[in-house]
Amino acid sequence: MTDIIDLTQTFEDGMPGFRMKGPDGVPRAFTASVQPFLTHEASAPNYADGVSFEITEVQFQTSIGTYLDSPRHRYPGRADIADLPLASLILDGVVVDGRAATPERPLGVAELPPAESLRGKAVLIRFGWDRHWGTDAYFRYPIVDRAGLAHLRDADIGLFGVDTINADDSADLERPAHTWFLDSGIHIVENLRGLEALGDRPFRFFAIPLKVRAAAAFPVRAFAEVR
């Protein structure tokens, strides 16, 4: 029997987003707006009695919710979201238990699967950090250390996913995960949730965005088909 496991944070009005310093050095929080553009009440006079429609307006920055980074996110002129082949977004996956990691102690090579078992796979790190979604604790998160990231890059994985806000340490201004992976054609998905539901069962991972030209990143519906 096949199970479909949703791994996506709910996209909604006022949802948790990201923080960025403005020109004045003051951090600013970003979120999404989801509002009616046309309400049922407003549209009703245009149709027969009892008939009405709603149209929704959504405004957001693309790095919000559970989202996918394209190479353009890190490298000017490289492939954008619309350029990514669907086959590269549907991959056999493996979940790595990273719950022993903390913001002070990253996950290392010794805690990652051997390289020969990872080629072409979606490697999803279960830090369990989705439990902090919507709190300040979510912004201090564990990572995979540089040696571990190099191990995954050299293993030629297909995609790297985390249940944290960032695949990189925010204090590391070289951003090795984004720099190495996106240069190597390895996709990145951030803000996953519910990885515990996958257990140790084999699965295929899907991370499908809209086909948006010139978008460097975009929210996805991430899910797993568990066999």
From TrEMBL:
GO biological process assignments: L-tryptophan catabolic process to kynurenine
Chain coiled-coil ranges: none
MF GO annotations: arylformamidase activity
Superkingdom classification of source: Bacteria
Gene3D superfamilies assigned: Putative cyclase
Stored Pfam families: Cyclase (PF04199)
Protein name per its UniProtKB record: Cyclase family protein
